[in-house]
Amino acid sequence: MKLNTKNLLYILAAVVVAAGLYWYFFTGSGGNAPPLSASAPAQNEAQAQFDTLVGELNPISFNPVIFSDPRFAALVDLATPIAPEATGRIDPFAPLGAKSK
Question: pLDDT tens across 51-75, in order?
Answer without folding.
Answer: 888 888 878 888 888 889 999 999 9
